Amino acid sequence: MTEPLPARDVGEVRFDEAVDVVVVGLGAAGASAVMGARQAGADVLAVERSGGPGGTSALSGGLLYLGGGTALQSACGFPDSPENMAAFLRAALGPGVDDDRVDAYCEGSPDHFAWLVSIGVPFRAAFCDEPNRESADDAGLLFTGGEDTFPFDELAVPAPRGHKPEYVDSAGGFLMERLGAAVSTSGARVVADAGAEALVVDGAHVVGLLVTTDDGPRAVRARGGVVLATGGFIHNEAMVADHCPLAHVPDPAWRIGTPNDDGRGIRMGVGAGAATTRLDSFECALPLGPPHRLARGILVDRDGRRFINEDAYTGRIGLHALRDHDGVVYLITDDVIHEPNPIGLRIGYAAATPEELAADLGIPPDALARTVREYNEAATRGDDPAFHKRAPFLQAVGAPPATGIGAVDLCVDHGAIYATFTLGGLVTDRDGAALDGEGRRLSGLYAVGRTAASLAAHHYASGISLGDGSFFGRRAGRHAADRARADRSSPA
């Protein structure tokens, strides 16, 4: 279980100061909450555990999943609509997506993109045709969730929605530089190297926060509310052990986050009565590129069988490989299909026939031979009835002019990249307000970013973390500011 950090009763606390809104954490979600509150006229205190803005957001590729007809999509010639975007997200992020939050996100996505530009985040109107990760140059738009692959290309019109700030290669640090600069000029007060200890409650209302700073402990009253934006819990070993099956969690070296992704904000929220959901849900990327051309090979499990269309989004591939096949996976390829690649995938086994290759891999020879034969026959026809891989990636494996057949070892226990982070957290509504177990708002408490349960219910699309974190962070900041305004105007 997630052990709560109990809230303190207001009767036990003497406040040192009062502000309109307190934001805990300054990644993309927290910085956006600060900006949303400040632009709504609130007096804001931001509490950051490290030395300044950044967090896991700064370590990311910088992709923001946005759509519905953003100015960048239009400039690059890709029509989209909120309804089309929502149809994809419901299919791709489920099962169990929050329809109300998805609708709010898709409807507000074009405006949110314009807002990011307005506060100083630039984007270059250029499309990158290498999907699944950030562009190697500063191109601003790409496919990042398998929108153009089966089955999603049959459920919604494919549209790229990965929006990357104008920066070469990984742009997370650059994004946070821009968001941090916006915060620093916004008039908000930032207290760095400060730890949030507990929420303060007055009955069912969250009214403040206990903080430890270099100058000692402080109690801060929050007229409008406290916004928790402290990240997930991928680096809390006890929480991971409790909620994510141990066999499914790779080596900590590939857990995406900072040491501050320890679940503290989630535990604080639980201590104040907030509900959690999907704490067992996580993202797991298994990159097969770039280049995406490597998807012309086929993925097989320990039984020598295919289990997915290889041109799919790498997060979907990785989750199925790890969760459903215990991370025992091989990419079957040859010396024509395979090529040098930036992530260092190499052919580790080579043989003249599938049967010989299977013997080297320790998988059933007859099964692998049958899988390769059936796939090659289908690829020669330009069809993949089993998994619907698209025609550009259909190529017979181990057939002339290839001189044999080979395998890339993608087993989790052999050092392959299985990059994971948590998706579950506090239950929230479309304004980022935390909810209790009955679905009621906890007055004065908000959770955003990975502290809240992601839009990605059980599957992921790259850019959703920064997208929904910044989107709902901004909304939470505005909503808390409105509460503070009402508090100031109410009779004493």
Structure description:
The protein has 492 residues and is of the alpha/beta class. The chain has a domain at 289-414: Flavocytochrome C3, Chain A, domain 1, CATH 3.90.700.10. Helix content is 29%, strand content 20%. The chain has helices spanning 28-39, 55-59, 71-75, 82-93, 99-118, 172-184, 237-243, 264-271, 314-325, 354-361, 365-381, 464-489; strands at residues 8-9, 17-24, 44-47, 64-65, 124-127, 139-142, 162-163, 189-191, 195-202, 205-213, 216-228, 276-277, 282-285, 298-301, 329-333, 349-351, 405-409, 419-422, 425-426, 433-435, 441-447. Strands 1, 2, 3, 8, 9, 10, 11, 20 and 21 form a 9-stranded mixed beta sheet that branches. A 4-stranded mixed beta sheet has the order 4-7-6-5. Helix 1 packs parallel to helix 6. It is elongated. The chain starts with 7 loop residues before the first strand and ends with a helix. The mean pLDDT is 95.
Main sheet properties: 9 strands, mixed
Output the CATH class name of the domain at 289-414: Alpha Beta
CATH homologous group name of the domain at 289-414: Succinate dehydrogenase/fumarate reductase flavoprotein, catalytic domain
| Total count of helical runs of at least 4 residues | 12
Tell me the radius of gyration.
24 Å
List the helices and strands and how they pair.
Layout: E1 8-9, E2 17-24, H1 28-39, E3 44-47, H2 55-59, E4 64-65, H3 71-75, H4 82-93, H5 99-118, E5 124-127, E6 139-142, E7 162-163, H6 172-184, E8 189-191, E9 195-202, E10 205-213, E11 216-228, H7 237-243, H8 264-271, E12 276-277, E13 282-285, E14 298-301, H9 314-325, E15 329-333, E16 349-351, H10 354-361, H11 365-381, E17 405-409, E18 419-422, E19 425-426, E20 433-435, E21 441-447, H12 464-489
Parallel strand pairs: 1-9, 2-3, 2-11, 3-8, 5-6, 11-21
Antiparallel strand pairs: 4-7, 6-7, 9-10, 10-11, 12-19, 13-18, 14-15, 15-17, 16-17, 20-21
Helix pairs in contact: 1-6, 1-12, 4-5, 10-11
